[in-house]
Design a protein that fits this description.
Glutaredoxin; homodimer; Glutathione S-transferase Yfyf (Class Pi), Chain A, domain 2; alpha+beta; about 55% helix; about 10% strand; 4-stranded mixed β-sheet
Amino acid sequence: MYRLFYAPHSCSLASHIALEQTGAAYEAIKVDFGNNEQRGDDYLSINPKGRVPVLVTPDGTLTENLAILVYISQSAPEAGLTPRDDPFAFAQLLSFCTYLSSTVHVAHAHGVRGYRWADDPAAISEMKRKTPESMSECFETIETRLFRGPWVMGEDYGIADMYLFTIASWLKADGVDPNQFPRVADHRARMLSDPVVKKVIAAQ
Amino acid sequence: MYRLFYAPHSCSLASHIALEQTGAAYEAIKVDFGNNEQRGDDYLSINPKGRVPVLVTPDGTLTENLAILVYISQSAPEAGLTPRDDPFAFAQLLSFCTYLSSTVHVAHAHGVRGYRWADDPAAISEMKRKTPESMSECFETIETRLFRGPWVMGEDYGIADMYLFTIASWLKADGVDPNQFPRVADHRARMLSDPVVKKVIAAQ
């Protein structure tokens, strides 16, 4: 039995979908960001970084969405959510997911959590102002260069789809029209009609 | 034969060390950031993101340091630079490396490349001002919670060591005294005396 600590509208949605997709036994525990629960002593004793997702496994606790996604998929290899026995294909998947975690998610964070990198309110406002531009650039790269079709990595559905779907769901709130990116928008529509994705969104 | 595109003082040092450590046949090609070569048409045709490292392999081109490090290690499993057949140990490694790529490297980038997230020079200065504070917080987390010893992940030397060594080498320039973090500083001293690391630093 796994325990997933998640917050609605955060990147933990991807890990939640992966757990549901593999049929793993898990309990999903909501962390109330509205009440700053992630900064409370109880939660910091689980994850001192004060972030989600966290996956508590029989072997120990894991942090970082990308690591959790890879762990869930490799622990249920029959689900086929990551390439097996092909270091290049696996590295291509990691490359895409690392771009999401270290560039795209970071671009988004400047619109909502600029205090991580500046104290001056004017600087935080300036970061927020630029967020639509940097998110648009990232999604232009995804739309025209990285997305293969029909799924992110090509023929096989997997963790990259769950992760892209999650981050693309932030575009509107970031001030970006998602319809600028028709392949990403079509991917999103297909994800939204998937029974597993529907179930997880309803549960969150 | 691989081709590695790197820039001195960038995170590509880690991938360079991994190639040398595994005994892979490779050519290292310097990208001149001083002359903005990474934004030139020749380089953008290799990596449209305009970043390093890039690894050109017989199967295709890879971007993102973490993906390249995992690829190099998994393509030379006899070197033992990543855990094999143990999804939890591998996920712990990915968790550490993702923290480096999406939090620590990003904190550093605010001191040198703030223009990615703001246009206003005052905001860029404010980001730079806060960089020592955020880098110190990151290394406090590494020193007290994440670093296991004697190597980053415990008994086995691997890609996490190469990656931490690379990012820790930026501390002084970021305005942080590396000796605040004795375990990281000791790790750095051991890495600097390693013949493979010495050879790569001399070559760069």
